[in-house]
Amino acid sequence: MVVDAEDRKADLLKENEQDGPAFKMEHDPRITRIGHMIRKTSIDELPQLWNVLRGDMSIVGPRPLPCDETEACEPWQKRRLEVTPGLTCIWQVQDRRTKIPFDEWARMDIRYSESQSPHADASLVIRTLRSIFGRKGV
Q: How far is CA 33 from CA 36, 87, 102, 122, in A?
């Protein structure tokens, strides 16, 4: 990301491609050329493994949003935070993540939190790996 990425976010909110409180842009101008490559190859996720090792996150669980986006969630949407956050969950393995309405994204996370199981977690990890390594153009 560019140095002033957070400052520039306010100017980009009108171009947000995700409804609800989450901010998503497929072609975010704040991402540098190197940053785009890092994101495309999911290398940017490696530091999160430290959070998993520390016990602050798990491998599978709803991805945390930035604090300002979490605060803007409706009370029912915050139920997605009732479990330990993770690196991947149901929303992350969908084909068109930015096209899924935020309410549905929150419902997916809540559904996960209500039906956690080792089998479901293993399935999500496998689907995540397929999504990462199956991308075209990486």
A: 5, 24, 28, 33
pTM flag (> 0.85): no
CB contact at 8 A, 91 and 100: yes
Transcribe 44-68 into DSSP letters.
GGHHHHHHHHHTSSEEESPPPPPHH
Looking at the structure of the chain, the number of domains it has is: 1
Q: Is residue 97 part of a domain?
A: yes
Is there a domain that residue 138 lies in? no
pLDDT tens, residue by residue, 14-33: 999 899 999 989 889 999 99
Show the domain range for 55: 5-133
Note the pLDDT tens digit of each residue in 81-116: 999 999 999 988 887 655 889 999 999 999 999 999
